[in-house]
Amino acid sequence: MANILVIGAGVMGTTMTIPATDNGHKSTIVGTPLDQDLIKNIKEKSYHPKLDVYLTDTIGKNYNEVDQNDFDQSDLIIIGVSSKGITWFIDFINNFNVQRKNFLIITKGLYINDNNKLDILPNRIQKYINQDVDITAVTGPCKAIELANKNITNVCFVNNELDTAIKLSKIFKNNYYLIQTQDDLVGSEVCAALKNIYAIALGYSQVHYSNKEKIFNPESALFSHCLNEINLIISLLGGSSQTVFGLSGLGDLHVTSGTGRNGTLGKYLAKNKKYSEIISNELTGETVEGAELLIEFESYLKNYEHINKLPILQKLLESICGDKNLNIPWDDLNI
User: Fold this and answer.
1) Which sequence spans correspond to the domains of the chain?
2) Half-sphere exposure (CA, 13 Å, Cβ side) for 240?
3) How far apart are CA 256 and CA 249, in angstroms?
4) Does residue 57 come out as left (phi exceeding 0), alpha (psi in the -120 to 50 range) or beta?
C-alpha cells in the first residue's frame, strides 16, 4: 500500500486519488489557501463538490495543518496546483525535507530559464526547492470529471528514467485508467502547455466556418497545421516528434479543443468578439490557460527567432495580446 500526498484540492489533483484508492492505496489532499471550502467538504463529507463525487480512503488537510510527518510517511507527492500556484508550491515545499521523494506533476505550464530559453516546470521546481527529488509528469487526454466517473482514460507517465515512470504507474493503473510510460519529459511537458494555446485556434475553427450545418474540413486541416507548429517548437527544444503525434500532443489537443476553456475561448472569438470582451463577460472569472500563457510570454514569443515559421502562433498572439479579431492565416499554411 502506498501513501499519496496531493498538494492542491482542485479537480485534477483530487481525481488522481480515485484510481489510486480503488487500487488499495491511501491519499491525503492538502488544500492551498484558496481551497478551504473544498477541504471542509472533504473533511466533513468525503465529498468534492466540483467533481460531485465521494472519496474513499482519502482525508483532507489545510496547508497550515501539515507537518513533516505527513511528508515522511508519503510514498508519492502529487503536484496538483495551477501553473499560477507553482511559486506558492515551491515556497510551501521549502518548509519541509523532501529529499529523494518521488513527485508526480499534473500542472501544465512553461517558464523562461536563466539562459532565456523556454523550459519545463519540473526543471523550475527542482532548481528552486534545491533538494534531490524526482519528478514524473502526467500528460495526455484527460478530463478530470470523466476520470472521476471512471470512464476509460489513457494517459502517459513520463520520466527521463523510464523505470521510475513504470514504478509509479503501477500505483494508478487499472481497468479504466490506462497508462503508457515514456521518457521524453521535455516533449511531453511542452506539448501539455502548448496544446492549450493551439486549442484556441481549433475552437475558433469549430464555429467560424459553420453556419446552418457543422463543417469539418477547415478544423481537420487546421488540426494538422497546429500539430506541425507544436512539432517544430518541440524539435528545437530536443523533444521527440513521436510525442507530438501521440497521446501527449495529438490526443490532448483533441480533447482540449473540443471541451475545455481554451476551445471555448476560440468559439467566442469566432463570433468576431475580442479577447478583452470575452474575458470580461462570457468567461469572467475563468482561467484560460492558453491565453494566460500567451500573455505571460508575449515579449519572448514575439522575438522568438523562429516565430516566422509559426503563423498560427503569430495570429494567436495578435488576437489575445493585441486584442484583435482572430484570423487563420491559410495562405501562409499552404506554401
Assistant:
1) 3-183, 186-333
2) 13
3) 11
4) left
Residues 172-176: what's their mean pLDDT? 98
- Decide which of 3.90.79.10, 3.40.190.10, 1.10.1040.10, 3.40.50.150 is the CATH code for 186-333: 1.10.1040.10
Beta-strand pair 26-31/47-48: unpaired
Q: How many angstroms separate the CA atoms of 109 and 194, rounded?
A: 8
Asked if CATH classification 3.10.20.30 holds for the domain at 3-183, the reply, yes or no, is no
Q: Which residues contact 66 (CB under 8 A, 6 or more apart)?
A: 30
Q: What's the per-residue H, E or C state across 219-266?
A: HHHHHHHHHHHHHHHHHHCCCCHHHHCCHHHHHHHHHHHHHCHHHHHH
| H or E element at residue 308 | none
- Write the pLDDT tens digit of every residue in 249-298: 999 999 999 888 999 999 999 999 999 999 999 999 888 999 999 999 99
96 HSE (CA, 13 A, CB side): 20
Cβ atoms within 10 Å, residue 303: 9
Contact between 200 and 293 under an 8 Å Cβ cutoff? The reply is: no
